[in-house]
């Protein structure tokens, strides 16, 4: 079966392999149809994250279940599924305190992950990382379920009130999808901001969001004009660049909220935290995917992805497996907002 492996930073290998991990009682086997490249994959690829402790590669996938261990969670052979965290153990300290996103590491749940034609996925009564997907979602769009789950988590952390203004700084997939979800949840003015001309142009073309160029000196005034208060109700800081947190604090209104899904590397020179007190800012972290289930036990994120599928599809660039290296190159350069590699 075909596999893409990261041997070292910037060193991808594509090859055929016979290694096929044996199914166990606590796993299901998924034939991968499509797998997206995440910012965290790029951090490994770019050498900003240490590769040595990683057991899997690729976690934003859709596919078909071909083998089932114990059949927990109603997952059956032949079912179309996509990755997202849907279930933690419910018993550990994190689960009992509303932080199921910390229950178990993906390192222990995926073998070898979505950049291989087949992967095992842990699936027990205590953990699930797969949601069944409905017929109206194609495999490519379904592969965005996991980042959409992360973005949904951001939106939930924002605890939006009707009409709240939102500024999303950093128009990667998480920032963009969070902006789109917040719109559906009743946000008022929603502004996207980025300093990359390429990204701004791409987002303008989709028509999904009004955008502002943060490389322009007057961008902050522009934001304040558009939101008609002393700042924005909710700022999503999704750039991954630590100094931008200062901009987020400046753009937030008195009493405003800042949600941070950014994976930061490094610190901020000359950081002045005074506005946290002066403006009574609330700064909220948002980490990874988390179960977002409706009362009937099905995924609210799947429903949201179905609702937004045509818009979400605009964010995706599809690459055949043979062009996987190009997919990584385009994800790295920003030429693709969400690069998705198609296996079949
Ligand atoms: Zn991801
Ligand atoms: Zn748990």
From TrEMBL:
It comes from Agathobaculum faecis. Gene3D superfamilies: Medium-chain alcohol dehydrogenases, catalytic domain, NAD(P)-binding Rossmann-like Domain. This is L-threonine dehydrogenase. Pfam families: ADH_N, ADH_zinc_N. Keywords: Membrane, Metal-binding, Oxidoreductase, Transmembrane, Transmembrane helix, Zinc. Coiled coil: none annotated. It comes from the Bacteria. GO terms for molecular function: oxidoreductase activity; zinc ion binding. Belongs to the zinc-containing alcohol dehydrogenase family. InterPro entries: ADH-like_C, ADH-like_N, ADH_Zn_CS, ER, GroES-like_sf, NAD(P)-bd_dom_sf, Zn_alcohol_dh. The chain crosses the membrane at residues 166-191. Its cofactor is Zn(2+). Residues 5-341 form the Enoyl reductase (ER) domain.
């Amino acid at each position: 079966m075909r596999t893409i492996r990261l041997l070292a930073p910037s060193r991808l290998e594509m090859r055929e392999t016979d290694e096929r991990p044996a199914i166990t009682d606590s796993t299901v086997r998924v034939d991968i149809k499509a797998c997206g490249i995440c910012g965290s994959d790029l951090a490994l690829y770019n050498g900003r994250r240490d590769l040595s402790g990683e057991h899997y590669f690729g976690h934003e996938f859709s596919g078909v279940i071909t083998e089932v261990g114990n059949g927990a969670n109603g997952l059956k052979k032949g079912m179309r599924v996509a990755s997202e965290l849907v279930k933690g153990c419910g018993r550990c300290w994190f689960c009992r305190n509303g932080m199921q996103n910390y229950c178990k590491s993906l390192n222990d749940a995926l073998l070898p992950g979505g950049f291989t034609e087949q992967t095992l996925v842990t699936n027990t009564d205590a953990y699930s990382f797969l949601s069944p997907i409905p017929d109206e979602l194609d495999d490519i769009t379904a592969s965005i379920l996991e980042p959409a789950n992360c973005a949904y988590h951001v939106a939930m952390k924002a605890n939006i009130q009707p009409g709240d203004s939102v500024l999303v700084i950093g128009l990667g997939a998480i920032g963009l999808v969070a902006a789109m979800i917040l719109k559906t949840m009743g946000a008022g003015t929603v502004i996207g901001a980025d300093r990359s001309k390429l990204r701004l142009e791409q987002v303008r073309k989709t028509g999904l969001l009004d955008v502002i160029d943060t490389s322009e000196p007057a961008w902050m005034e522009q934001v304040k004009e558009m939101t008609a208060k002393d700042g924005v109700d909710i700022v999503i800081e999704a750039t991954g660049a630590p100094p931008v947190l200062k901009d987020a604090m400046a753009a937030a209104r008195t009493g405003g909220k800042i949600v941070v899904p950014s994976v930061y590397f490094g610190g901020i020179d000359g950081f002045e935290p005074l506005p946290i007190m002066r403006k009574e800012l609330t700064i909220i972290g948002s980490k990874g995917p988390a179960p977002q289930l409706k009362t009937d036990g099905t995924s609210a994120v799947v429903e949201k992805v179905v609702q937004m599928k045509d818009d979400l599809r605009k964010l995706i660039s599809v690459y055949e497996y043979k062009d996987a290296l190009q997919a990584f190159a385009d994800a790295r350069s920003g030429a693709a907002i969400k690069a998705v590699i198609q296996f079949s």
